[in-house]
């Protein structure tokens, strides 16, 4: 993983942002926002993610996060990987979605 996802002090809170490839306005549909929220809840319950604030924009996300139990870089890596896979599947199986490529 690149150094921009390294958290040097696991006891601190961090502001993180991540965006959709090509800044596509993906999160205009509620079902895609729900995938993101479900993924966050899973990470809170099972991986020790602590979320102190968040903002879902149409093409990117901002979060203030921390963890007292697991490494933040591991949590963030797993969360992004899982969320991307679920979003991709949801988009491909959405009959009204025009942006399938």
Q: In short, what is this structure?
A:
The protein is α+β, with helices and mostly antiparallel strands and 101 residues long. It is built from two helices and three strands, in the order βαββα. The radius of gyration is 14 Å and the shape is elongated.
Keywords:
101 residues, alpha+beta, 3-stranded antiparallel β-sheet, 20% strand, elongated, Transposase_17_sf
SSE topology sketch:
Elements: E1 14-19, H1 30-47, E2 50-56, E3 60-66, H2 72-92
Antiparallel strand pairs: 1-3, 2-3
Overall description:
The protein has 101 residues and is of the alpha+beta class. The chain has one domain. 39% of the residues lie in helices and 20% in strands. The protein has two helices and three strands, in the order E-H-E-E-H. The chain has helices at residues 30-47, 72-92, and strands at 14-19, 50-56, 60-66. A three-stranded antiparallel beta sheet has the order 1-3-2, with helices on one face. The longest helix has 21 residues, at 72-92. The protein is elongated and about 45 Å long. The two termini are 26 Å apart. The model has no long low-confidence stretch (mean pLDDT 91). InterPro entries: Transposase_17, Transposase_17_sf. It comes from Mucilaginibacter gossypii. This is Transposase IS200 like. It holds the Pfam family Y1_Tnp. GO terms for molecular function: DNA binding; transposase activity.
